[in-house]
Specification:
Elements: H1 2-18, H2 23-35, H3 39-52, H4 57-70, H5 73-86, H6 91-107, H7 113-129, H8 134-146, H9 150-163, H10 168-180, H11 184-197, H12 202-214, H13 218-231, H14 236-248, H15 252-263, H16 272-282, H17 286-299, H18 304-317, H19 321-334, H20 339-352, H21 355-371, H22 376-388, H23 392-405, H24 410-422, H25 426-439, H26 444-457, H27 460-473, H28 479-490, H29 494-503, H30 509-521, H31 525-538, H32 543-555, H33 559-572, H34 577-589, H35 593-606, H36 611-623, H37 627-640, H38 645-657, H39 662-675, H40 680-692, H41 696-709, H42 714-727, H43 730-742, H44 747-760
Helix pairs in contact: 2-3, 2-4, 3-4, 4-5, 5-6, 6-7, 6-8, 7-8, 8-9, 9-10, 10-11, 10-12, 11-12, 12-13, 13-14, 14-15, 14-16, 16-17, 17-18, 18-19, 19-20, 20-21, 21-22, 22-23, 23-24, 24-25, 24-26, 25-26, 26-27, 27-28, 28-29, 28-30, 29-30, 30-31, 30-32, 31-32, 32-33, 33-34, 34-35, 34-36, ...
């Protein structure tokens, strides 16, 4: 019994000791794992040491090194930053952190000042301790390059190389800087000496090749690539680079011979056919690339999926969507969980634009996004799908999510700015465009959006300056010229607009459209229509010209012509929601509310969340006297968009005018006017509800205020006349009603006013 107790005591003691590993013990375990290449396991040990002692600098340092070897820059940055704080004498930690920061700085086109300052501070610490610190001099040399101080950079890099002669990266960047600074002889000698010492460092060959090629020293350009291949005979990518050189200089025979060095040596280049296929894909020789992908898949079945994917790329580049889609479907049967293929299929579905395909693409993108919630590009594609569905609000939210995940996601910012302009949210559009220009100062589309947003904001002087600047910087870019002409048009500078549109050329649809719009604004509608018809004879497929003809026909009161042109446009854009809305609007102008309702309903069915078409449908139903349907439609719209104050106002008016709940009507109308106090139509609705509730004095006061502010608004005078008649003041009522008739009311309203005048007698 005593022996058993003794054994138990030993075991207990051992377990206790094993649970008390010191922080140094964890680091030691981590170091052994790291030496064995097991960096993930090593990181776990280093983190355990940090849990023991959060200020244990050695553990942070080792964790940073392990993260670097795993390619985890974020973790490496955090760990090494902490190591530098805790181990001020650890120069290697400073050097590793400096290198990490420098890479991040050079890869970021914005050149963040915070990164610059951190690099400069680290370099300063290293040089304070050792004025000849290679890493300190290297960091400052690179910063001098980004500051466009080549002489200073050259001096610093030379000094660094005195400490560490022929460091490949620094020697190469020094040679490149010397070339750019015109010191070509020294640069060439330096680069060639490096090659003589280190034949495997590829970038130095590339710098020399680029210089030789641009200087039209073709024999030297060819020879330096030959040397690169000869000195690194196992590198198929170097052989492909030499073949690409022959492609660039139109030496087809040499190109083919060079590629056969890969194809004829399957021992050294087991993936040779795949690499040659990639080469042909790069130079856009798609049939050849597809042939070699097929051969590569047969030769190495393990590369089958890769070859299928790249075959799809080649087919898509040729516009062969159906064939590409077929291969994707076939490959997904073999690899149903291959996210790359799922995404490619979704991209194809989205590109087709067909409603049923857009829905399928949206489902795939949403599934992928759930698996990769931080992938900004997936959010962007979800936004694109919703945009095609006409759901602008959901699209906007997804584009914003993409930007939240990637601040430099310019394509998402383009869409946000464009949607804001469409929704008449000029300040939001200007903010997005400003962000784009901040990220990319020479981005033409960003600058263009910024100028257009300035126009929408009413900042015409600034917009004119920006458009003029775009025309100066990009003389071949037509869009700013069109916008400048449209700006002149908006300022009623018709002659200037004509001249600007005229300079764009008679074959430019935007220019012809602009000239027609100019004539329309001068009430020369027939001239505009003749101009557009003439242009359409030359360019019958121009959607821009047909759209302008339809709009001009509306202004001219030629509604049947407008309907014909919108129908023509719908033939080429069968899923267009805006075109269906325009058709509905034209039928409304004709007084044909039933046909208007048909088109608005189609638009809403295509895009159930489109508030504009939903609002138009509710309004048309009300005008057609279909009160119950109109009320349901407004209520449905407000469930989706509770902040749609126009819908709230219209529902209030509908309720008050059709015997509905007047208390509910007043609540809705007052809520709308509280949110948009400057909207006169909302105030008119409040007054109308007062009148229906028998609050005559309040109604008279509300309508009187409106008439004083808007004396030419027939509706406000009509409603004031109604209210005055209710109070018994027939004389004033008659005067207001006659003034309303003189202010050109609509036909329906005029009939109601005359009926009321006759009632007064």
């Amino acid at each position: 019994m005593k022996r058993v107790l003794a054994i138990c005591g030993v075991v207990t003691c051992f377990l206790a000791l094993s649970g008390c590993t010191t922080k140094q013990g964890y680091v030691a375990k981590g170091n052994k794992l790291s030496e064995a290449g097991k960096y993930a396991d090593a990181s776990i040990q280093y983190r355990k040491a940090i849990q023991k002692d959060p200020k244990f600098g050695e553990a942070h340092y080792r964790l940073g090194l392990a993260a670097l070897r795993q390619g985890d820059a974020k973790q490496a940055f955090a760990a090494l930053t902490r190591a530098v704080e805790l181990l001020p004498d650890n120069d290697d930690a400073k050097e590793k952190l400096g290198d990490l920061l420098l890479n991040a700085y050079l890869l970021d086109a914005r050149r963040p000042q915070t990164l610059y300052n951190q690099i400069s501070q680290l370099a300063g610490k290293l040089l304070t301790k050792n004025p000849n610190s290679f890493e300190g001099l290297r960091l400052n040399g690179y910063l001098a390059l980004t500051d466009r101080k080549p002489d200073e950079a050259i001096a610093l890099l030379r000094q660094a190389l005195r400490t560490k002669p022929f460091d490949p990266a620094v020697t190469t960047i020094l040679a490149q800087t010397l070339l750019q600074n015109g010191q070509t002889q020294e640069a060439e000698t330096l680069a060639l000496n490096l090659i003589a010492r280190d034949k495997t460092y590829g970038p130095v060959y590339d710098r020399l090749y680029g210089w030789y090629f641009n200087a039209k020293r073709m024999p030297e350009a060819e020879n330096i690539l030959k040397a690169k291949v000869d000195n690194n005979p196992k590198r198929a990518d170097y052989i492909s680079q030499l073949a690409f050189h022959y492609y660039r200089v139109n030496q087809s025979a040499e190109m083919n011979n060079t590629l056969h060095r890969i194809l004829d040596n399957s021992k050294d280049y087991p993936q040779g056919r795949l690499q040659v296929a990639d080469f042909y894909l790069k130079i856009r020789k798609f049939p050849e690339s597809i042939r070699y992908y097929q051969e590569a898949a047969k030769e190495n079945p393990k590369d089958h999926i890769v070859c299928q994917k790249r075959t799809v790329e080649a087919l898509l580049a040729q516009g062969k969507m159906q064939e590409a889609s077929s291969i994707i479907d076939q490959t997904l049967k073999e690899q149903p969980k291959d996210e790359g293929l799922v995404r490619l299929r979704a991209d194809l579905w989205l590109e087709s634009g067909k409603p049923e395909n857009v829905d399928k693409a949206l489902r795939d993108f949403q599934t992928l996004s759930e698996a990769h919630p931080e992938d900004a590009s997936l959010r962007f594609q979800i936004g694109q799908a919703n945009l095609l569905k006409g759901d602008l609000e959901t699209a906007r939210k997804q584009f914003q999510e993409a930007v939240n995940r990637r601040k430099d996601f310019v394509q998402a910012r383009y869409q946000l700015a464009t949607i804001s302009l469409y929704q008449h949210k000029a300040s939001e559009a200007l903010e997005q465009a400003s962000q784009i220009v901040s990220l990319r100062p020479n981005d033409t589309r960003g600058r263009m959006l910024h100028a257009v947003a300035q126009v929408a904001m009413g900042n015409r002087t600034q917009a004119r300056a920006e458009l003029t600047g775009l025309i100066r910087d990009f003389p071949e870019y037509q869009e700013p010229k069109v916008e400048l002409a449209l700006l002149a048009l908006s300022e009623k500078k018709y002659q200037e607009a004509r001249e600007l549109f005229g300079k764009l050329g008679k074959d430019n649809p935007r220019a012809i459209s602009g000239l027609a719009e100019t004539s329309s604004l001068e009430h020369q509608f027939q001239n505009a229509i003749e101009l557009l018809n003439g242009a359409l004879k030359r360019s019958p497929d121009s959607l821009t010209l047909r759209d302008q003809l339809a709009n001009t026909a509306i202004l001219a009161g030629q509604y049947d012509l407008a309907l014909t042109e919108f129908q023509n446009l719908l033939t080429s854009q069968p899923n267009s929601v805006p075109l269906r809305v325009r058709l509905g609007e034209v039928y409304e102008l004709k007084g044909d509310y039933n046909n208007a309702i048909v088109w608005y309903r189609e638009a809403q069915q295509l895009s159930p969340k489109d508030s504009f078409s939903a609002f138009a449908l509710a309004s048309a139903l009300a005008k057609a006297g279909r009160t119950a349907e109109a009320k349901t439609q407004y209520q449905s719209l407000l469930k989706l968009y509770p902040d749609n104050w126009a819908a709230m106002n219209n529902l209030a008016f509908l309720l008050s005018n059709t015997g509905g709940d007047l208390d509910e009507a007043l609540r809705l109308a007052q809520h709308a006017i509280q949110k948009v106090p400057g909207q006169p139509n909302f105030s008119d609705t409040v007054g109308y509800v007062y009148l229906k509730k028998g609050m005559r004095d309040s109604a008279v006061q509300t309508f009187t205020n409106l008439v004083q502010k808007y004396p030419n608004a027939s509706t406000f005078r009509y409603h004031l006349g109604m209210a005055l008649l209710e109070t018994g003041d027939k004389a004033r009522a008659r005067k207001e009603l006659e003034t309303a008739l003189a202010n050109h009311p609509s036909q329906d309203e005029a009939a109601k006013i005359r009926e009321l005048v006759n009632k007064i007698g």
